[in-house]
């Protein structure tokens, strides 16, 4: 498991935000933030970054909800988020994610999350992932072909096989600090859904610009984050247009 330096050193920012949705508890005790109308055109499983339930996490979920999606954000790390006092200790962070943050460990939770959306009547479901959450989004797409697409913001931990095994178009928006995915991205372009994939590098943004580390009180950073969200929403709507 490999993380860029920013994942292990830079703390989340402090911001105020009042979520628009509600928190529910699934049958296994997993708490989830749910936002958006039950009659929305499609749903999004929103996979937060390593800092878990931060103000920007809720805000990002609400952005998708305001664009017409039903959004569920599972608290997958439960009582084990990466805490500020752990920053600087790379091995401790990697150990935490290697135990409670792997796809095999979280698979049953994610199945329940999807079943919850199915129970609300949603069979058109997208994925959005931030940092570590982007890795989970790719893993879900590799295993389950029913997901319509994914939006990956400053993704971490991705490997070439994630691109080879993806079964849905991906909208990938790394920061200047993230790996260069250009070559691996060609694996997506070669697939039948290649025209619905998108890659944009935010070479003026730091890792975390669309999640827990995003200083959205700075106008330029908020503008760039909004651009990334708009790209994702536009991409999802393009996919929905052919799935109608």
From TrEMBL:
Residues 31-239 form the Dienelactone hydrolase domain. It comes from the Eukaryota. GO terms for molecular function: hydrolase activity. InterPro entries: AB_hydrolase_fold, Dienelactn_hydro. This is Putative AIM2 family protein. It comes from Smittium mucronatum.
């Amino acid at each position: 498991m490999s993380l860029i330096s920013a994942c292990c050193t830079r703390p989340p920012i402090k911001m105020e935000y009042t979520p628009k949705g509600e928190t529910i508890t699934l049958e296994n005790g997993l708490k989830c933030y749910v936002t958006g109308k039950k009659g929305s055109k499609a749903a999004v499983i929103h996979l937060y970054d390593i800092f878990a339930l931060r103000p920007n996490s809720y805000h990002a979920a609400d952005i998708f909800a305001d664009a017409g999606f039903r959004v569920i954000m599972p608290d997958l790390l439960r009582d084990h988020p990466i805490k500020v006092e752990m920053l600087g200790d790379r091995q401790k962070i990697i150990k935490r994610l290697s135990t409670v943050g792997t796809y095999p460990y979280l698979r049953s939770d994610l199945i329940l999350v999807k079943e919850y959306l199915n129970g609300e009547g949603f069979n058109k479901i997208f994925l959005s992932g931030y940092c570590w959450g982007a890795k989970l989004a790719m893993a879900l797409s590799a295993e389950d072909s029913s997901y319509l697409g994914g939006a990956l913001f400053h993704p971490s931990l991705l490997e070439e096989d994630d691109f080879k095994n993806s079964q849905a178009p991906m909208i990938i928006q790394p920061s200047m600090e993230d790996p260069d995915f250009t070559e691996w991205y060609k694996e997506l372009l070669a697939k039948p859904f290649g025209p619905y994939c998108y890659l944009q590098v935010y070479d003026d943004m730091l890792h975390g610009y669309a999640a827990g580390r995003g200083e959205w009180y700075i106008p330029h950073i908020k503008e760039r984050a909004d651009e990334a969200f708009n790209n994702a929403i536009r991409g999802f709507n393009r996919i929905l247009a052919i799935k109608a």
